[in-house]
Amino acid sequence: MELFVATFLKMFFIMTPFFVLSVFLTLTNEASTKEKKTLAIKVTIALVFLSLALLFFGRHLFAIFGITLDAFRIGAGALLFLSAVELIKGSKDGQKVDASNLHDLAVVPLAIPITIGPGAIGILLVMGAGFKNATENLIGIIALICAVVVIGFMLYFSHVIKKVIGKQGLLVVSKITGLFLATLSAQIMFTGIKNFLNI
C-alpha cells in the first residue's frame, strides 16, 4: 500500500497536473465543453500508453547505452528542478490554436512535452529500472494509471474547475506544485549522488 501511495503521489505531481490544467484551459479557450471533454479523453489515453512504454522499456535503454541508475537519477533530478523553476516563475506559456485543430493536440503538445516533459520522462525511466519484482511492477503500473486517470478527470471537468477556483487560483496552485517538484528533484539528485559516491 505504501508503494502504491508513494508512486501515485510522485507521478501525479511530476506530471504537474495544475500546470497541465492551466495550459489545457488556455489551448481550449475557444472550444465548446463537448470538444474539451473529447480532447481530455484522448489526452488521457495517450498519456497511459506513453507513460507505460517509458516505464517498461526504460531499463532496456539503460542497458543499451550503459547508463547507471544513479547517473540517470542525477540527470533526471536536474531536469525536474528546471521544470519546477519554470513553474514557480510562471515562464511556461501555452500556445493558442484554432478550435478546428483542437484534436491534433492530444499527443503533441498536451501529452508530450506538457504533461510528460523531460523531467517526467527521466523519473519514469528511473522508476521502471528501480522495480525489483513482478509485484512492484504491478503496483507501479496501477499507481501510474491511477495518477494519469486523475489528471484525465481534471481535464475532463476543467470547465467546472475553472469556475470554482478561477485563473488566479490555478496560478497559485501551479506555483505550489513547482515548489513541491523542486524539493522532490533535490531528493532524487541527492540519492543519486549518495549512491554514486558510496556515502
**Residue share in helix:** over 70%
Structural class by secondary-structure content: mainly alpha
**Biggest sheet, open or closed, and with what strands and sense?**
none
Q: How many E-type strands?
A: 0
What is the overall silhouette? globular
Share of β-strand residues: under 5%
Instruction: Count up the helices.
Output: 8
Mean pLDDT: 83
| H-E string | HHHHHHHH
How many domains?
Answer: 1
Between the first and last Cα atoms, what is the distance in angstroms?
A: 29 Å
Question: How large is the radius of gyration?
Answer: 17 Å
Low-confidence stretches: 93-97
Labels describing this entry:
globular; 199 residues; single chain; 0% strand
